[in-house]
Amino acid sequence: MSEHPFYQNENPKNRLRTWAFGQMMYGAFLAAAVFIGCILFFAVIYGIGLLLPEDARQTPDPMPRSSLEQPLAPTGHDLA
């Protein structure tokens, strides 16, 4: 075995490419970890929702639609 590290005589361009590839792989690993974490979080929420009784899933909408569809101005107003 040589007493010198194998990268001592390496081309600087190749060393830079290896470093850049390693950084990209590290970033891809972190992105995959965050993505899998989000998927697991939503899977847990979905699983908890499946454990709820059927009546809890059939509740009416808490926001009444009439309040969302009211006109901005009363009838007879210049904007109406």
Description:
The chain has 80 residues and is mainly alpha-helical. It has helices at residues 12-51, 54-57, 65-68. The protein is elongated and about 90 Å long. The mean pLDDT is 81.
Question: Which structural traits does this protein have?
Answer:
80 residues, mainly alpha, 3 helices, 60% helix, elongated
Compact overview of the structure:
Helix content is 60%, strand content 0%. It has helices at residues 12-51, 54-57, 65-68.
Average per-residue pLDDT, rounded, comes to 81
The rounded distance between the terminal residues' Cα atoms is 89 Å
Percentage of residues in strands: under 5%
Q: Find the count of extended strands (DSSP E, 2+ residues).
A: 0
Give the oligomeric state of the chains in this entry, treating copies of one chain as homo and distinct chains as hetero: single chain
Radius of gyration: 30 Å
Task: Specify the overall morphology.
Answer: elongated
Low-confidence stretches: none
Main sheet attributes: strand count, strand direction, barrel closure: none
**Continuous helix count:** 3
Helical amount among residues, as a percent range?
Answer: 55-70%
Order of helices and strands: HHH
Decide which structural class fits the backbone. Answer: mainly alpha
